[in-house]
Amino acid sequence: MTRLWLVRHAVPLLAPGICYGRTDVPADPVATDRAAEALAAVLPAGSRVARSPLQRCAALAEALHRLRPDLPSTPDPRLAEMDFGDWEGHAWDALGAERLDAWTADFAHHAPGGGESVAGFMARVARAFDELPHAGEADVVWIAHAGVARAAQLLAAGTRQVARASDWPREGLDFGRWAVVEWRPPGAFATPD
């Protein structure tokens, strides 16, 4: 099986508790360099690196490439974080229970802030996931976001749709950290009749 390394960008230069999904905020440069050093020490030679086009991920990919010239990256818009529409830039606790409850009531299809639904987000990440190479080829590295990592972990486990908020993974990757999952071809989880 091909291994997929899910890497989260370093801590963003933003106050804690702010919704920032698709907002293009920079990451702390010192934390980015530390994350790149740790990642450079463990990634196998010949890994293929794709990244979110957002600057916090581009910075980590560039820092990694400086340390490991064998690991250039390619931007992939499908690896951008979920779009929270007009919620972006606002504190999560200032959004109000009514707005958050509306989202959890229809977790799959409600577009928070008029942005992107979880179903749409999962489908976008699934398109990138389904194009990963077959077993025996190089490891793949995605330098992306917590939401992308959660979606990819669900996809690796065979979950294509998330109907309820309680089905969405609570634990995410820490800033500058990674997880490794095995990629299986689309349809590998089909059950026999």
Write a brief caption for the model:
This protein has 193 residues and is of the alpha/beta class. The chain has helices spanning 29-40, 55-67, 97-105, 118-130, 146-156; strands at residues 2-8, 48-51, 73-75, 140-144, 178-183.
- The helix/strand series, from N terminus to C terminus, equals EHEHEHHEHE
Shape: globular
Intertermini distance = 25 Å
Using DSSP, what is the number of strands?
Answer: 5
What order do the strands of the largest sheet run in, or round the barrel if closed?
3-2-4-1-5
Instruction: Supply the helix-strand structural class.
Output: alpha/beta
Rounded to an integer, what's the Rg over CA atoms? 17 Å
- Report the β-strand fraction as a percent range: 5-15%
**Low-confidence segments:** none
Largest sheet: 5 strands, mixed
Instruction: Note the total helix count.
Output: 5
The helix content is 25-40%
User: Averaging pLDDT over every residue, what do you get?
Assistant: 92
Question: How does this model look, in words?
Answer:
The chain is α/β, with parallel strands linked by helices and 193 residues long. The protein is built from five helices and five strands. It has a five-stranded mixed β-sheet with strand order 3-2-4-1-5, sandwiched between helices. α2 links the parallel β2 and β3. The mean pLDDT is 92.
List keywords for this structure.
193 residues, alpha/beta, five-stranded mixed sheet, 5 strands, 30% helix, globular
